[in-house]
Structure formats: structure tokens, C-alpha cells
Design a protein that fits this description.
Blueprint lengths: L19 H15 L22 H7 L6 E7 L2 E7 L6 H7 L7 E8 L4 H13 L3 E9 L1 H7 L3 E4 L4 E4 L11 H16 L4 H9 L6 E2 L2 H6 L2 E3 L12 H12 L1
Parallel strand pairs: 2-3, 3-4, 4-5, 4-6, 5-8
Antiparallel strand pairs: 1-2, 6-7
Helix pairs in contact: 1-7, 3-4, 4-5, 6-7
Length: 251
Amino acid sequence: MEPVFFRVTRARETAAVVPSLIYRNFESRIESKTGSSRGVGLASFSGVLMVRVLCLLLAMMLSGTCSALEIQRVAACSGVVLRLRGDFRDGDYARFKSQFRKTDVVIGLDLSSAGGDIEEGVQIANLAHEKKLSVFVAEECISVCAFVFFAATKRYLGPDSRIGVHSISNSREIEDLSSMRLTLKLARLSAKLGVPTSAIGKLVTTRPSNITYLDAADLSGLVTSVGNPFHYQRPEKSSGAAEEQQKSCSG
């Protein structure tokens, strides 16, 4: 059963609190949409929101479209690692969930993504949290991808990895009242995951068309480690390769 903790499409709010200074900053943007803050409380948030997170602008400039999420199973010493590349799209959560029906145990994620569909991404984050997966970001992890990273039991980064955040837009790539409220919702969920205030502030105050990368202080507050924790098995069948792999897995 899906934990209430991650139900961003439900009316119930989580108990975590966004720091008041961050909230006031973001609330001023909401007021600019309405002329008043009256009646804009998060308690009025209800129903299913079909919203999209902007793809990384650079990726769009290069390809003209967002790439679909690629899911690859990679054998590691203690189980299977799911290597995720590309952007979250409709149906990706179902594909991701199906990976756990197979015999081999999934122990973690090797992740690089520019973001994508917020609902699909949050459901993937929910399952990753439920399965207590470790997550390694090989390159860049932006937008809702960052939320998957936040949800990990253990978080790892490559030497040049970057985690980027921004607030949410709707399906027309516009920041409206509903998407603003959902941004605050994700901020509260992030706080409950132990994400530091400095990182939440960047999530809330960065407009959807921009990206703010977490710095060393933010990452320290997230308790991240540098280096890939997964020892991948090599496909070679030679006795020398097998012997080397055995040493790697045992040591």
C-alpha cells in the first residue's frame, strides 16, 4: 500500500514545516497571481494534479524533445542495480515497479536524469524509499530526479555529479497557483526526508525555467558520500576476469 507520506496528489498535508522565511518568499509569488493571499492555503489543495516539470533547457536545445527513461538491469556483487537514464514519462513507474517482480534482488539505483513527469518521478521515489534503496548519481540529477535522490536510504555522488532543483510548472510549462502549491507540498515532503533547509529554500525559490544546483554545504546536510558503492560484475568469461571479479566482490 502506498504510504501517505508520498501522496502528493492527495488532500492530506504532511506534518513537516517549510521554514517561514522560505514560505513568505514563495507566498509573495502566489499573491502576485491573485492580488491576495486569502484562500490560498495549502489545506485547499485537493484532487489529482497532472503537472509536468520542465526538462533541462539545454537538453531541449540539443535534442528538441525529452528522451524517455531507459531502465537497464546491471548485475552487481550483492544484487541488481537499476541504471536509469533519460526523463520520466507517463508509464515509467509501472515499468520501474515491474523490475521488482523478478527473482534477483534490486539493491540500488544508478541515476542520471534531467527530470520529467512529477507524478511518475514521485512514485518512483516512493518505491525507492519503501525498498530502502541506495542511489548513486553518476552525472546530473535535476528536478524530480533530485526528489528520487532525496528519498534514498543512502546517497552517493560521482566526483563531478550535480543535483539541481527548481519549483514546478504545469503541463503548459507555466507556474500557476496549483503548481505553486505542489512545490510547497514537495518542499514539506523533502523536509520530512531530512533534506536541509538550505536545499529546500533553493527548491522553493528557484523559478521553473531556472535550475539551482546544490552546493557542498547542502550535500553535506544530505549526508552524501562520494564514489560508486556498487561493484558491477564484468561480462567477460575468461578465468582471469572471473578471478578478478571474485576478489572485487569479496574485498
